[in-house]
Amino acid sequence: MTAVAGLFDPASFSSGLALAAAASILAAAFLRGLTGFGFALAAVPLLSLFLAPVVAVPLVICLQLAGNLFEIRTSLKGCHWPSLSWLALGALIGTPLGMLALALFPASAARLAIAAVTAAALLILTRGFAFRLVPGAQATLPVGALAGLFNGLAGMPGPPVIAYYMASPVSRIAMRASLNVFFLINAIIALVSALPLGLITWQVALCALAGLPLMFAGQWLGLRYFHRGSDRTHRVIALAALGAIAFGAAVKGLSDLL
Question: What is the reported pTM?
Answer without folding.
Answer: 0.72
